[in-house]
Design goal:
Layout: E1 3-7, E2 10-13, E3 18-25, E4 32-39, E5 46-51, E6 58-60, E7 68-73, E8 78-83, E9 92-100, E10 112-113, E11 117-122
Parallel strand pairs: 2-11
Antiparallel strand pairs: 1-3, 3-8, 4-5, 4-9, 5-6, 7-8, 9-10, 9-11
Length: 123
């Protein structure tokens, strides 16, 4: 069974940091691009970052540049999302998703999804 499991979410104060993890099982992430998406209450799911498979090229949304860092550890079959200087508007459920090789902005292009991890930023 192909599975992604997110972890690392929680309640954090304004300006704090979190590192989210996305661990794969049943397949290897070496040949997959992994994207992070988030969905806040009453809002549509949006892409925040992605890392491609072949050259580890990274992509970020405009509001995430400079605060978010995506990385992968193929030995651990895990992708990480480091979030610094957290803001209340970062509050959302964060999902990771995988698709073959290259990153896409559109969520529907991803084949494998995790269950999500809640990030709540308190002010």
């Amino acid at each position: 069974q192909l599975q992604l499991v997110e972890s690392g979410g929680g309640l954090v104060q304004l300006g704090g940091s979190l590192r989210l993890s996305c661990a794969a099982s049943g397949f290897t992430l070496d040949y997959y691009a992994v994207g992070w998406f988030r969905q806040a209450p009453g809002k549509e799911r949006e892409g925040v970052s992605c890392i491609s498979s072949r050259d580890d090229k990274t992509y970020y949304g405009d509001s995430e540049k400079g605060r978010f860092t995506i990385s992968r550890d193929n030995a651990k079959n895990t992708v990480y999302l480091q979030i610094n200087s957290l803001k209340p508007e970062d509050t959302a459920v964060y999902y990771c998703a995988a698709r073959s090789y290259v990153c896409y902005v559109i969520a529907n292009e991803y084949d494998i999804w995790g269950q999500g991890t809640q990030v709540t930023v308190s002010s």
